[in-house]
Write a structure and sequence with these properties.
The protein has nine helices and ten strands. By secondary structure, it is of the alpha/beta class. The strands form two sheets. A five-stranded mixed β-sheet has the order 3-2-1-4-5, with helices on both faces. Strands 8-7-6-9-10 form a five-stranded mixed β-sheet, with helices on both faces. The structure holds 5'-O-[(R)-(carboxyoxy)(hydroxy)phosphoryl]adenosine and zinc ion. Zinc ion binds next to helix 3.
């Protein structure tokens, strides 16, 4: 018999609902919030208000698209952290009342684990899944981690950023260049037409498997300040080369530690996950390692990289198999915990 799970994601600025039949997606809808564009980042108050407006229509539409009646659902899985408290509370409160009304179990999902579980969604375009153990570079707007994944239930963070996340580096660099939020996808697009060696930026010196991205932001800021003094149109004239150089720098930093992790653990099954894994340069860099015969690589389908509820639903499915259900008094958490 099939298991039908409703997944709900509301940890940041995307309201998303998905319906899963075992590991297959029946529907995966995301309502983005445009309200943050002009603020250079997510405004928590506006995010939670938009989640409140979006959550019912998004879930209703997901169920309709999946052609599933709510009474057919076996469980409701929802993100309970890490994320913005106000945003998480909207998903948590909805999930509690929905599960209670339907008399079905609730499943709490760790957003960062779900990014990794997205690699196990089964569909026509994602037929190959990583074997255990594998290493996953989980790169998003709030986190940058190298995770040793031993099973769906056992994940160990063996390296992480000591300051900014990789997605934050993309977004802050874009903001300095006057691009709207989120800047990552825009840098990606401009970078495709630019020279990655045009402007060399320094690499951080951080020990072990940890990362640092705050220095990059500062060097871009000072570099552009100096250039703009001589030519106020410097950014406009060099946008593609700047984007390509910044992107290349971030990818080199990410790849260097990933190589070190692969050497230290002896694991050659390497995956990427999280919003920044949508970056075309990072996907290509990983693919090149496979072509060179070094690694076997696993890259999620584009729509499972940035925040989505399909990943929450599959994470919920793994917990459903273990009957790992949450009590009604469960509360969200804001900072990463394993
Ligand atoms: O996983 P995600 O959707 O949300 C969080 O959990 O944070 O990641 C969002 C981050 C943002 O920083 C965004 O700029 C970045 O992922 N991102 C990208 C690309 N698409 C999204 N960064 C670089 N290139 C992209 N194509
Ligand atoms: Zn995310």
């Amino acid at each position: 018999m099939s298991t039908f799970i409703l997944g709900i994601e509301s940890s940041c600025d995307d309201t998303s609902a998905a319906v899963l039949q075992d590991r297959k997606i029946l529907a995966n809808l995301v309502a983005n919030q445009d309200v943050h564009k002009n603020f250079g980042g997510v405004v928590p108050e506006l995010a939670s208000r938009a989640h409140q407006q979006n959550i019912i229509p998004v879930i209703d539409n997901a169920l309709k698209q999946a052609k599933i009646h709510k009474k057919q659902l076996h469980a409701v899985a929802f993100t309970n952290g890490p994320g913005l408290l106000g945003s998480l509370l909207v998903g948590t409160s909805f999930a509690k009342s929905f599960a209670l009304a339907l008399g079905i179990p609730m499943i709490t999902v760790n957003h960062m684990h779900a990014h990794i579980h997205a690699l196990f969604i089964e569909d026509e375009l994602q037929k190959v899944h990583p074997p255990f153990p594998f290493l996953c570079l989980t790169v998003s707007g709030g986190h940058t981690q190298i995770v040793l994944v031993k099973s769906p239930y056992s994940m160990e963070v063996i390296g992480q950023t000591i300051d900014d996340a990789a997605g934050e580096a993309f977004d802050k660099a874009a903001k300095i260049m006057g691009l709207p939020y989120p800047g990552g996808p825009l840098i990606d697009r401009h970078a495709n037409l630019g020279n990655p060696d045009a402007f060399p930026f320094p690499h951080p010196q951080v020990s072990g498997l940890d990362y640092s991205f705050s220095g990059l932001k500062t060097s871009i800021l000072y570099f552009l300040r100096d250039q703009l003094k001589q030519d106020p149109a410097f950014i406009e004239k060099n946008l593609q080369d700047l984007a390509a150089s910044i992107q290349s720098n971030i990818i080199q930093i990410l790849m260097k530690k990933l190589h070190l992790a692969a050497r230290q653990t002896g694991i050659q099954h390497i995956a990427i996950a999280g919003g920044v894994s949508a970056n075309s340069g990072l996907r290509k860099a990983l693919q090149e390692e496979e072509t060179a015969g070094k690694w076997k690589v696993y890259i999620p389908r584009f729509e499972y990289c940035t925040d989505n509820a399909a990943m929450i639903a599959i994470s919920g499915y793994f917990k459903y198999l273990q009957k790992d259900f949450a009590p009604l008094d469960t509360v969200p958490f804001t900072r990463y915990q394993s």
